[in-house]
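User: Just a sanity check before I run the rest of the batch. Below are the structure tokens for the first item. I only need the designed sequence back.
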């Protein structure tokens, strides 16, 4: 095998790769070698490299990639510690690449790598800055997209296109190729959180990217399972809201505030149950509502807002206690600001809004410092 690879590697070492294929991975050890073989077969006439960006997979994905890299210098591995998320992985991978064109493709073997030469030709001939593998144009075929996921994706696509005025048919696609110089220009505007890197890229470009969409065949997953969970819906809404504010407010803060809104509903529901059904005194009911809401907020923030810094094991208990403390102080800040505003302008809703805003800003800032601290 080494002898078969060496001639291509030596030639490429002198000229450098024309295409970098970025593959974000988490628990994909059974797929990476298959994908590498497919790229090798498809890109026979292209100087290429593949950069696997692995979020410290417990199944040893990075070990498999490094074993491939020992046999072929076109293979590289970026192993991320303490960071999670597809968008961040794609951004790091593209910025670490060395080719003028970069493609993003999933490791689950569902994207059609045979379309890469066509995508590269469109970019290299200056017909586009961005080429998207689209599910919503004629010629697309699906072998592994279930109806529930397809429906959710179609709804999200329609929301994104209307609210963010995105022109392409499939801004939710995870299969695309982009000019690296154009990506470099837009990278500072992109969020490292979440899953929808293409939507973020197109929305941030505000129509400045010349985009072409091509159909492809969406294959069936062969190994492992999808990394998408029920929290992705909130993640998506947070990204849309962040782009609507022109990134003045960060995606993480918006997600934190959205979770806080859910916590308010949980608080009121618990209060109602305790007062009306269990018949406990108001003080105890209010305390129960606050504790249940804070616990709910902590769990949701741990699995969504701070997904890339998710607490595990004993750290969850320590984090929960710190979250209780942070939110308790935040409540005092909330009440203090509300009273101060009310003294100046006795409008109850304005005072309440000011207090709530102060509370969420305090809780967000202190949670980042003391609960989900970066390692």
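Assistant: Here's the designed sequence for the first item:
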């Amino acid at each position: 095998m080494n002898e078969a690879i060496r001639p291509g590697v030596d030639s490429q070492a002198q000229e450098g790769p024309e295409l970098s294929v970025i593959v974000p991975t988490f628990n994909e050890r059974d797929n990476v070698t298959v994908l590498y073989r497919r790229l090798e077969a498809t890109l026979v006439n292209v100087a290429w490299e593949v950069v696997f960006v692995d979020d410290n997979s417990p199944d040893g994905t990075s070990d498999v990639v490094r074993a491939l890299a020992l046999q072929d210098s076109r293979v590289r591995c970026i192993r991320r510690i303490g960071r999670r998320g597809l968008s961040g992985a794609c951004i790091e991978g593209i910025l670490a690449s060395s080719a003028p064109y970069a493609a993003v493709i999933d490791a689950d073997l569902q994207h059609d790598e045979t379309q890469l030469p066509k995508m590269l030709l469109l970019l290299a001939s200056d017909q586009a800055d961005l080429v998207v593998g689209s599910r919503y144009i004629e010629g697309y075929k699906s072998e592994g997209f279930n109806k529930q996921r397809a429906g959710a994706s179609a709804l999200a696509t329609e929301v994104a296109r209307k609210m963010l005025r995105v022109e392409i048919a499939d801004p939710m696609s995870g299969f695309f190729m982009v000019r690296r110089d154009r990506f470099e220009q837009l990278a500072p505007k992109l969020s490292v959180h979440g899953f929808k890197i293409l939507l973020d890229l197109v929305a941030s470009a505000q129509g400045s990217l010349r985009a072409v969409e091509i159909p492809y065949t969406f294959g069936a997953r062969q190994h492992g399972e999808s990394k998408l969970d029920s929290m992705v819906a909130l993640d998506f809404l947070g990204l849309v809201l962040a782009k609507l504010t022109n990134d003045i407010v960060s995606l993480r803060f918006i997600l934190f505030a959205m979770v806080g809104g859910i916590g308010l509903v949980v608080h009121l529901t618990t209060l109602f149950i305790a007062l009306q059904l269990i018949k406990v005194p108001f003080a105890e009911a209010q305390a129960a509502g606050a504790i249940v809401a804070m616990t709910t907020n902590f769990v949701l923030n741990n699995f969504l807002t701070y997904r890339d810094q998710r607490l595990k094991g004993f750290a969850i208990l320590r984090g929960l206690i710190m979250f209780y403390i942070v939110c308790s102080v935040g409540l005092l800040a909330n009440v203090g600001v509300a009273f101060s505003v009310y003294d100046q302008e006795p409008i109850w809703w304005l005072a309440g809004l000011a207090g709530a805003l102060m509370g969420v800003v305090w809780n967000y800032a202190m949670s980042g410092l003391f609960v989900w601290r970066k390692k």
